[in-house]
Amino acid sequence: MKEKIYISKVTKDVKNAIKDCLLNILYKKSDLIDFLRECGSTSNDMNGIEESLTKSNIIDIYYNNLEKRVDNGMMQFHALIRNIIDWSDFDSYWFQQGALAPEQAKNKIENLKKILGKKTEKEEERLKIKEREKDAEKKRDKNRTMEELCIEFYEMCKNEDGSQRRGYQLETFLKKLFGLSNINVFKPFKLQGEQIDGSIKFDGENYTFEARWQEVAMACNALYTFAYKIETNMLYPRGLFFSINGFSKDAVQRVTHGKSPQLLLFDAVDFISVLQERITLIKLLEEKIRYAQTRSRIYINANEILK
């Protein structure tokens, strides 16, 4: 398994350690030039390099050329580092003849690893700090959005406008609430001439949904119609029905009697519990699905689930 090496900047001590390694693992100048070329070097990177120079000068010119690149030669330096660290040819001719010392070469490579190890640890810690900062910012953004949704919901509750307008507001609110949990809400559409408020995809299953801001009796009438749509819909056989004022026991019994539960019902208690962060929307959906599938209960709100 290869060692994990990551640095965002090649400092002077790293360059010196790389140079020491190159001078101790490569004897011929032509081999050094070939090694540099094999590390993704371009003709510009190799500009001014020739065998008449000393190996030390070749490396210095190569470093100067890399510094002229926009990325300061990060790709080439990483390739150099990887090829040096993976070097295992200590039985070659020049090592056998004594022109190069195997132990000294190994020590230089170990020194490079040690320097890189310290820098990698620092880099990883820096990245962890950045990730923590990013997560904290996301959390702050989510909290702000949740607070805004909370205000929006309570404003809707106080609003005396007609139920139809509040119904549209509820659809918009739902889209934002689901979006906050990374659940996509798809636009309203017509299916066989019937209007559907929208649909979501959750846990690999598609659900159509309708939202109502009506008194219980009217909401229950809409529920019967929606339940029929679900029963006769081959494409979207599952549904979510949102009614702020809840449902009567009789209505729930009528849509479930003698049938497999394909509906999940939500009321104001569910919204308030999610907005107050007593339960996440994902967890609420999972629990509602579990109760529906294991106990045939399609109407259980967050308060009961949290008991």
- What is the radius of gyration? 33 Å
Q: How many beta-strand runs?
A: 7
> Which bin fits the share of residues in helices?
55-70%
Order of helices and strands: HHHHHHHEEEEEHEHEHHH
What is the approximate shape?
elongated
What do the pLDDT scores average to? 83
Give the class from helix and strand content and strand pairing. alpha/beta
Distance between termini?
A: 50 Å
The CATH first-level class of the largest domain comes to Alpha Beta
CATH architecture of the largest domain: 3-Layer(aba) Sandwich
Number of domains: 2
Largest beta sheet: strand ordering: 1-4-5-6-7
Query: What's the assembly state of these chains?
Result: single chain
Describe what this molecule looks like in 3D.
The chain has 307 residues and is α/β, with parallel strands linked by helices. It folds into two domains: 12-124, no CATH class; 159-305, Trna Endonuclease, Chain: A, domain 1. The chain contains twelve helices and seven strands. The protein has helices spanning 12-25, 29-37, 55-67, 74-85, 93-96, 102-158, 163-180, 216-231, 249-256, 268-275, 281-295, 302-305, and strands spanning 185-186, 189-191, 194-196, 198-202, 205-212, 239-243, 263-266. The protein has a five-stranded mixed beta sheet. The chain has a two-stranded antiparallel sheet with strand order 2-3. The longest helix has 57 residues, at 102-158. The radius of gyration is 33 Å and the shape is elongated. Mean pLDDT is 83; it is low at 190-195.
Provide tags for this entry:
307 residues, alpha/beta, Trna Endonuclease, Chain: A, domain 1, two-stranded antiparallel sheet, 58% helix
